[in-house]
Write a structure and sequence with these properties.
The complex is a heterodimer of chains A (275) and B (343).
Chain A: H1 2-14, E1 19-28, E2 31-41, E3 46-51, H2 57-64, E4 72-77, E5 80-82, H3 87-92, E6 95-98, H4 110-114, H5 125-128, H6 135-148, H7 166-180, E7 184-188, H8 196-211, E8 215-219, H9 223-229, E9 232-237, E10 240-245, H10 252-260, H11 267-271
Chain B: H1 9-14, H2 20-30, H3 34-50, H4 57-82, H5 90-107, H6 112-136, H7 141-160, E1 165-166, H8 167-170, E2 180-183, E3 186-189, H9 190-208, H10 210-220, H11 222-227, H12 232-258, E4 260-261, H13 269-279, H14 291-310, H15 315-342
Antiparallel strand pairs in B: 1-4, 2-3
The chains are: A alpha/beta (275), B mainly alpha (343).
Chain lengths: 275, 343
């Protein structure tokens, strides 16, 4: 295990982060959701973000994915500064997100949802002049994507999303993000509504994304899952980064202790690479 | 795609046989245009039995002409209702545009085609005004269009001074929509054909283009649509502007049908267009329904009014019958929506 740790540490020294944030601040009126948060994500790694309720996890990832515009702070993608005004901006540079509240249109079918916002048109004049959608092609591809997640109760790709269970909806959202993410995939509590079997399938998908060289950010409350797939774990506490640990350097119990503020960790030691 | 894994108890429950009523509910949930279609067919049969003049081609042609104006407005209204909005100003915009076209052509001596084009631009701008207030300023559509209802009604009256501009002053182009031609035993007008074309184009755009998917997604859940990468403000603006253009085309149909540009026609058009949309199965909560339903809804209103009139029923009873229909349609919508929650 220490071998992998050394390897990934060496890799990180050579690489520039695929996604990095410095000094992000987001306030909602008097409420300070995140208070100067930094984050670095490297290609081909899984970075878990954990923290208690109200630690600013969701706000942090919303700022990273364009769902919210941070008040202060900079975000870089492959070293270039970016300003995301809307989720579409992040999608355009290859950052896909599965939001906790699932961004699905309940009245549309599974295939329409997988391709929502980037529908594919028919080839030729039907697509260019008459802007006709390639329903058949999108259905076929959506079926493949959803099938690869192995969610067994999804049978009909033309089924309307509101007729699906919570876990099935989550599968659709995960299928969409993994189908289109080319740089980074952010998953906010992707296994919250899933059973044991589906959860392990989502963890497999995360490993596969990592193997494809994508950066993955996983927000989760499930410590066993986090310690199973994460390369590094960023711990958020009270709107700040309390520290970054690895599954090798700390135990789940220690991570929880940092999360609750019982123990502090020297932040510079782990993330001083940008200094 | 079916997996032959042994079922859990919950999965067995899910795949249980449905009662006939649940099956009906499920089918209606998938195809919301079926229930208004049943009502339309039923109404036609009943009125045909009451009065044998009802089914004569001349009468059916008349019904089409009678519903053409409400039918045209209801195309734009459907787009707006699909985004979970509502437009109370549709009739006011139409009459305002009709007066703009009429005043330019009839009093200022502008060529009919030019007056028409100016009217289209005015309609688009009126839609833009509603759209900006709804999507950029985030005001409730009900209140916005209640305000613009007053504004456009007043502007139309101020501009015309309450006078009508007769058809013979308007020139051939603006009254072209009244031109009749025979299709078999039926007498159609250019206006009726224009309205049918509006439905065809609109239904195509809603079901076959990305824009159509986005209209449904924005009406369904605007927050989710935004997170999915849809530019919701832009979609809303495009819907209101498109609707404004449709209302301007409705003004052209209106001028042909009335044979004049006047502020005294189609005064009930605002609410009647909403009636057609609601009876047609489009949900006022947005994201569900479509133009085929609205076309059927508009025809139901026309068939009821015409059929009851042929049966010599007082006009007040017609209004009452339409009122009952609206409540029945909305109740049915609620019942059908529960099918979605069940599974």
């Amino acid at each position: 295990m220490s071998m992998t740790q050394q390897e990934s540490a060496r890799m990180r020294e050579q690489q520039r982060p695929v996604l990095s944030a410095r000094g992000l601040v987001k306030t909602y009126g008097a409420v300070v959701a995140i208070d100067g948060v930094d984050l670095d994500l490297y290609a081909g790694e899984v970075l878990a973000v954990i923290g208690d309720n109200g630690a600013g996890k969701s706000t942090l990832i919303k700022c990273l994915t364009g769902a919210e515009v941070p008040d202060v702070g900079t975000i870089r993608v492959d070293g270039n500064e970016v300003r995301f005004r809307r989720p579409q901006d992040a999608q355009e540079v290859g950052i896909e997100t599965v939001y906790q509240q699932l961004s699905l249109a309940p009245a549309l079918d599974i295939a329409s949802n997988v391709f929502l916002g980037r529908e594919r048109r028919r080839p030729g004049i039907l697509g260019s002049v008459f802007r006709m959608l390639d329903h058949a092609g999108m259905r076929k591809e959506a079926a493949e994507k959803v099938d690869s997640l192995g969610i067994r109760t999804l049978q009909d790709i033309t089924q309307v999303v509101e007729t699906l269970s919570g876990g099935q909806r989550q599968a659709v959202a995960v299928a969409r993000a993994t189908a289109f993410g080319s740089r980074v995939v952010v998953l906010d509590e992707p296994t919250a509504a899933l059973g044991v079997r589906e959860t392990s399938q989502v963890l497999d998908v995360i490993r596969e994304l990592k193997a494809r060289g994508l950066g993955v950010i996983l927000i989760s409350h499930n410590m066993p899952n986090v310690f199973e797939v994460a390369d590094r774990i960023q711990i958020q506490r009270l709107g700040r980064r309390a520290g970054v640990i690895t599954p090798e350097s700390h135990t789940p119990a220690e991570a929880v202790a940092i999360m609750t503020g019982a123990v502090t960790v020297d932040d510079e030691e782990e993330t001083g690479d940008e200094a | 795609m079916t997996h032959t894994v042994q079922q859990t108890a919950a999965e067995a429950f899910r795949s249980r046989p449905l009662t006939p009523l649940q099956r009906v509910q499920r089918v209606l949930h998938r195809h919301p245009a079926i229930s208004p279609l049943v009502v339309l067919i039923g109404a036609v049969i009943v009125f045909a039995l009451i009065n044998d003049r009802f089914l004569q081609p001349a009468n059916l042609s008349l019904i089409l002409q009678q519903v053409s104006i409400i039918g045209a407005l209801a195309v734009g209204q459907t787009l707006i209702v699909l985004t979970a909005g509502i437009d109370l100003s549709v009739g006011a915009i139409m009459i305002f545009v009709a007066m703009v076209m009429g005043t330019l052509a009839g009093e200022a001596g502008v060529p009919g085609v030019l007056a028409f084009l100016v009217g289209m631009v005015v309609g688009a701008l009126a839609g833009l005004l509603n759209g900006v207030l709804v999507s950029v300023w985030k005001l409730p559509p009900f209140i916005v269009t209640l305000g613009t209802l007053g504004i456009f009604t007043a502007l139309a009256l101020l501009m015309s001074g309450g006078r009508a501009i007769r058809g013979d002053q308007l020139g051939g182009f603006l009254t072209w929509t009244s031109t009749t031609f025979a299709v078999g035993p039926f007498q159609l007008t250019v206006g009726v054909v224009l309205v049918l074309v509006l439905y065809a184009v609109g239904a195509y755009a809603l079901s076959q283009t990305a824009w159509g998917r986005h209209v449904y997604a924005v009406g369904d859940d605007p927050a989710a649509a935004r997170l999915a990468g849809i530019r919701t403000t832009r979609v809303l603006l495009s819907v209101y502007i498109t609707a404004g253009v449709i209302f301007a085309l409705s003004a052209w149909v209106l001028i042909g049908r009335v044979g004049a540009a006047t502020t005294n026609s189609a005064v009930d058009a605002n609410l009647d267009s909403i009636t057609a949309v609601v009876i047609g199965g489009t949900s006022l909560f947005g994201g569900r329904g479509g133009l085929i339903g609205t076309l059927i809804g508009a025809l139901i209103v026309g068939v009821f009014r015409n059929g009851l009139a042929l049966a010599r029923v007082d006009v007040l009873w017609q209004t009452l019958a339409i009122g009952v229909l609206i409540i029945a349609a909305v109740s049915l919508d609620q019942w059908i929506r529960r099918a979605g929650a069940q599974r």
